[in-house]
Amino acid sequence: MSHATYEIKDRVALITFQNPPVNGMSYALRKSLVVFVDQAEADSGVDAIVITGSARAFSGGADVTEFGTPKVLQQPILRVVIEVLENVTKPVVAAIDGVCLGGGLELALGAHYRVAAAHAQIGLPEVKLGLLPGAGGTQRLPRVVGLEKALHMITTGQIIKAKALADTALLDKVVETDVVDAAIAFAKEVVAQNLPLKRVRDIEISPEGAREILDAAREKLENGKKGQIAPLKCLDAVQASVFMSFDEGLKYERELFLQLMSSPESAAMRHIFSAERAATKIPDVPADTLLRKVEKVGVIGAGTMGGGISMNFLNVGIPVVLLEQKQEALDRGVATIRRNYENTMKKGRITAEQVEERMALLSTTLSYDDFADVDLAIEAVFENMDVKKAVFSELDRVMKKGAILASNTSTLDLNVIAGFTSRPEDVIGLHFFSPANVMKLLEIVRGEKTAKDVLATSIALGKKIGKKPVVSGVCDGFIGNRMLYAYRDAADNAMLAGASPSQIDKALENFGFAMGPYRVADLAGLDIGWAVRKRRAEANPEAYVPVVADRICEAGRFGQKTGAGWYKYEAGNRTPIVDPVVENIVREFREARGITPREVSDQEIVNRCVYALVNEGAKILEEGIALRASDIDVVYLNGYGFPAHRGGPMHYAQQVGLFNVVRAIKRFAAASEAEARFWQVSPLLEKHAESNEPLK
Ligand SMILES: C/C=C/C(=O)SCCNC(=O)CCNC(=O)[C@H](O)C(C)(C)COP(=O)(O)OP(=O)(O)OC[C@H]1O[C@@H](n2cnc3c(N)ncnc32)[C@H](O)[C@@H]1OP(=O)(O)O
User: Catalytic one among 106, 265, 276, 394?
Assistant: First the structure.
């Protein structure tokens, strides 16, 4: 099987990669490349060689579908292909369009010249898969873009438009016209002028100032990505480009690459890469389902959530009409959106022109009648069924046939909401996470009657606005919040057993969570949860179980906004300070229940909290609320700060061993009646622990 084609155009051999969708550097492609390059070199009718991909992708890098298979290490490996390219006696020009990433860029760096389309996207994103560029990228990139830029690109995986790299030695020419034609013309020029065959490996790197740059980068990385090894290995490899010979550096890079390839971190990050893509495929929804068109969106509610939701669409050029009950609320909402854009502009991420373009796509209204021409309406109003009823009745009245009616509810029953309309098949849940313009997760809630094309359209739209969509069935809290409740309860149980809130936060932060649960609670505010608990207690006094958070709230401590919550805060400062008042509240709470505190290790805290996620996740899977275990990982990683290098709770459980997880849960359950009530093992989890079959 060949993954490339060969033709001769005007004495230039054109080798075109043919491995859709993104020309991953498969074994077949690598082999075809070497065969065709040899053919071109031997042909006296050929003066030069151009290698190219498609408009979508020069190459997305190593073929990730070959990871974990023997093919990935089968010769010729990419490093050898690059060596072949570099040593050809005729000029080799890479014609770059679309994405040129990872191994794709490493290959292009083996060519003698590179011509790119201005919009081509260039980068070495291996670190995002827990890897480093293992085919010379760490040695060649610094030679063409300089140490500092290369370090940043390689340790963060940043992708840069070709236009922005036009003044570096990475690109010889950047064009707005057809890149293959331009590369062929360029190759002919090289031949006509008898220009030298430039090899990136021959470029000297000056060690001057390198130490300072490397030390600063190391310090930043050590304080940044907690627990991740790949970024630091990337740095080690780049450092070798300065202080070792090219060949020694290449050998060292290979050593580090192989270490990372077999690391649990890379396994976890590669798992998430496939999981995020799998989550967008729904077994009973055909891939070729005709999508509904969404060219205008209506958003109801101009608060933080509605404003954030609107920004997602404005960002990709979709006009939004924002609806509120009062003009002042609209004015406030619009001002907040503008301020957010202006802050982004101040950080240099968008231009003033883009701010105005986006704001020009935003209109406002006080009347539902202005929703007559929108293709999708999303409500982000108060979480109350009566309010939702009023909103959806109005939407049903005004919206055109075929439009999609979406709710951003995080707790309410979507089937009931759909029942407020005469078209439940057009109703879906689009659950954004706050801040909605930033957070990547989008839970798409499929109601009993949601039409397949509404689901497919919502997934496609989610991808278009840069979200990670995951489909959830209807249940209280859907996938993410339902798991969050279990996680928080597990943290509270650890606290009752003897751990302090700050010990719990630290243990989970050391595990890799961005923030522990009590710091998150202080940031989000404790009053909303308290109000919900009070309402539930009034409605059903027998089921009410007091929690420490009630006592914290009774003391008027609602988190950062009141200067005190689980921690205290100095005015204008967000650094949490351990507060003896809280320690007293916790102590009294334990005493009232006759609990004698004991030493709880950090490991036990992590096990309790993470296994609570796993157990609830397994129940969610068992009930069919989530379609796959990996969907749960995507939710928890993108919505709740689960450490990426651990691959999500379900993947992590698999790594620990399901048998070990179930054993630990049973030991927690044996501690008391209350613990036994909480730790009811999911039968599905138990079955898989027994059979040793992975949860899928
Ligand atoms: C020694 C060398 C090591 C390496 O080179 S390691 C690999 C380095 N490369 C990367 O890390 C790039 C990974 N891929 C991406 O970042 C993105 O993807 C792209 C930017 C290439 C494309 O993004 P978008 O246009 O949003 O599409 P999409 O849904 O992410 O991907 C479309 C389809 O392309 C498959 N795919 C993506 N990259 C690769 C690859 N490198 N090898 C094989 N397939 C790939 C996906 O899985 C998916 O497939 P489906 O349509 O079936 O879901």
Answer: 106
126 tagged catalytic: yes
Q: Is 288 helix (H, G, I), strand (E, B) or coil?
A: coil
Strands 297-300 and 376-379: parallel
Closest CA to 164 of 145, 179, 139, 189: 145
Instruction: Read off the pLDDT of each residue in 599-612 and give the average, rounded to a whole number.
Output: 98
**Cβ neighbours for 54, distance < 8 A, ≥ 6 positions apart:** 16, 17, 20, 23, 97, 98
Q: State the Rg of the chain over Cα.
A: 28
Tokens standing for residue 79: 């490093």
Residue 527, token pair as written in the block: 């009053």
User: Would you say the CB of residue 100 lies under 6 angstroms from ligand 1?
Assistant: no
Q: Cα separation of 498 and 617, whole Å?
A: 26
Contact 88, 49 (CB under 8 A): yes
Are 208 and 148 contacting, i.e. CB atoms less than 8 angstroms apart? no
Tens-digit pLDDT profile for residues 375-384: 999 999 988 8
Give phi and psi for 422, each to the nearest 5.
-90, 5
Quick check: CB of 78 below 6 Å from ligand 1? yes
pLDDT digits (tens, 9 = 90+) for 22-72: 999 999 999 999 999 999 999 999 999 999 999 999 999 999 999 889 998
Distance 436 CA to ligand 1 centre (A): 25
Strand partners, 49: 13, 92
| Closest CA to ligand 1's atom 36 | 22
* Annotated active-site residue in 41, 83, 126, 599: 126
Task: Find the largest Cα–Cα distance for the chain.
Answer: 92
CA gap 385, 90 in Å, rounded: 72
Backbone angles phi, psi at 24, to 5 degrees: -60, 145
Tokens of 305: 């959530």
How far is C-alpha 324 from the chain's CA centre?
Answer: 32
What are the residues facing 123 on neighbouring strands?
A: 101, 159
Helices 246-261 & 137-145 angle (0-180, nearest 10): 130
d(CA 90, CA 113) in angstroms, rounded, equals 11
Q: Over the stretch 451-506, which tens digit does the pLDDT of each residue have?
A: 999 999 999 999 999 999 999 999 989 999 999 999 999 999 999 999 999 999 99
Q: Note the pLDDT tens digit of each residue in 629-664.
A: 999 999 999 999 999 999 999 999 999 999 999 999
Q: Is the CB of 98 under 6 A from ligand 1?
A: no
> How many other C-beta atoms lie within 10 A of the C-beta of residue 463?
15
- Overall residue count recorded for the chain in this entry: 696
DSSP designation for 162: G
Question: Complex ipTM above 0.90?
Answer: yes
- Judge whether 408 and 467 are in contact, CB under 8 Å: no
State whether the beta carbon of 572 lies less than 6 angstroms from ligand 1.
no
- CA 611/CA 665 separation, integer angstroms: 7
- For residue range 392-428, what is the model confidence (pLDDT) as tens digits? 999 999 999 999 999 999 989 999 999 999 999 999 9
DSSP state of 164: G
Cβ(576) – ligand 1 distance below 6 Å: no
Tell me how far apart the alpha carbons of residues 432 and 409 are, in angstroms, rounded to a whole number. Answer: 9
% of the chain beyond a pLDDT of 70:
100
Q: From CA 365, how far away is CA 298, in angstroms rounded?
A: 10
Place of tokens 């021409």: 373
